[in-house]
Amino acid sequence: MRTQYIFVAGGVMSGVGKGIASASIGKILQSRGFSVTAIKIDPYVNVDAGTMNPTEHGEVFVLDDGMECDQDMGNYERFLDVNLSSDNYMTTGSVYQAVINRERALEYKGKCVEVVPHIPMEVINKIKKAAKKNRAEIVITEIGGTVGEYQNILFLEAVRMLKAENPGDVLLVLVSYLPIIGDGHELKTKPTQYAVRTLNSAGLQPDIIIARSKNGIDKKRKEKIAISCGVEENGIISAPNVESIYDIPVNFEKDNLSDFIIKKLKIKPKRVDLKEWRAFVSKIKKSVKPIKIGIVGKYFTTGEFVLADSYISIIEAVKHAAYATGIKPEIEWLNSEEFEQNKEKIKELSNYNGVIVPGGFGGRGVEGKIAAIKYLRENKIPYFGICYGMQLAVIEYARNIAGLSGATTTEIDKQTEYPVIDIQREQKSKIEKNDYGGTMRLGAYEAEIKKGSIAHAAYKQTSVSERHRHRYEVNEDYIEAMENSGLVFSGQSPDGKLMEIIELPRDKHPFFVGVQFHPEFKSRPLNPHPLFKKFIEAAKNDLK
Ligand code: GLN
After folding, report:
1. Whole-number Å distance between alpha carbons of 71 and 73
2. For the segment 41-61, what is each residue's pLDDT rounded down to a tens digit?
3. Ligand 1 atom closest to Cα of residue 386
4. Which end of the chain has the least Cβ crowding within 10 Å, N or C?
5. Do residues 64 and 444 make contact, with C-beta atoms less than 8 angstroms apart?
6. What strands, in cross-sheet order, belong to the sheet with 472-474?
7. Which domains does the chain have, with CATH numbers?
8. Is the C-alpha dihedral spanning 294, 519, 419, 440 positive or negative?
9. What is the pLDDT of residue 434?
10. Which residue has a Cα nearest atom 8 of ligand 1?
């Protein structure tokens, strides 16, 4: 099978939507009938994203095979509606690690192993492997960072080498930003020209420029960029700011991007069909009735931009479910530490139609989250606890209903009298030996769903697979006591040892559900996650 490669690099500055642009290019090519896969290259030395702080790097996204990676992988999965694997993600660290492992295994047969060409060759190997595994006709590879940084020069070298080997099968897209000076309308193209020069000095010439700007660019500006950058005018794509990221594939097609790519790669489209996607986009526009969803978290210290990035999959999962129901979610951030300082503030939770406590680690803000969960339970406000949000709901129930006063998780207090959440048994011995690497339960695991539960009403099946990322779990020793006081364990691992879903019966609460896994990682625009759908339905019923 012939494979062709599209690389996406960024110019001028970061944070202008390279990830979404890559996912959208994938989407429009998929809609023309090609099988597409997407790869992200992160320039970090970290081997994976598991050790990166979400306030700095954004959410850690988890794949089925347990790979902890960049949030852009989530964008690819959502736009392309595919499940990706660790073959689709690499960092500088993982590439060097692979080369060093090969060297130790004598695979270079006594040769000197050098940064060039061996590092770029390894990058190319990985890309080809992902292409093969995903049976992709077209592979979109996003190179993190911005051209001109030392960090990504070896990845650009990989593009150059691959192109030298297959000149007709490689395209390079530059996603660049056009700033406006002052409050006028003077859109500046010079920074983009410099970015192209920088690519030129790496031996590369872009075929397509995605020109990001506030309001889009006109024909005149396209001509100017085309001439000054040596790119065909049809290859200059206007990419204005949008209300919803899901508009972007549709916008790209307004400038006929897929036609241009098809012409450049000399391939024949099998169909034209962005119909379903367009229908979804128009449904978003029609979803106007507002619903208020609160997210209680602690990653709030570095400003709004980071905040949304730390919880991006949850935000998107809420949106998918809401749009499917024809309503518009208004998401607000609630800082759990404020609930600790000011008890009166908790009452503000009654302004919300539904509240989520998402995943988290450590002790900061935990008592505020537990107080919030108690309020939501007592006031019958729909509650959805994810991972830590589930564990904290178990703690709240243990303390306030099962009579286990002071119950907590050993993540916070190792000496607690009632460790209702405790380290996973198989991990205990590892940690005792100070072996912290690989102590999380990561990736897809099966769960069995109890008939008659809310979870079963949502999934409509008794066996599901969901993605995990946790070190602690519900302590088996307390399950009976909790069940006797009314908590339902409606999802469990097939061996019955791990509690995957908790809930309260519907006659006690409209929606009080906690899950040990991360359902947000599997929600797709055209296929919202069943538990998020049920949560949003309950929140919609809460609209008085
Ligand atoms: N801190 C908890 C644990 O390690 C929850 C993790 C999470 O929310 N992702 O089990």
Report:
1. 5
2. 999 999 988 887 777 778 899
3. 8
4. C
5. yes
6. 408-409, 419-423, 472-474
7. 4-280 (3.40.50.300), 287-541 (3.40.50.880)
8. negative
9. 64
10. 359
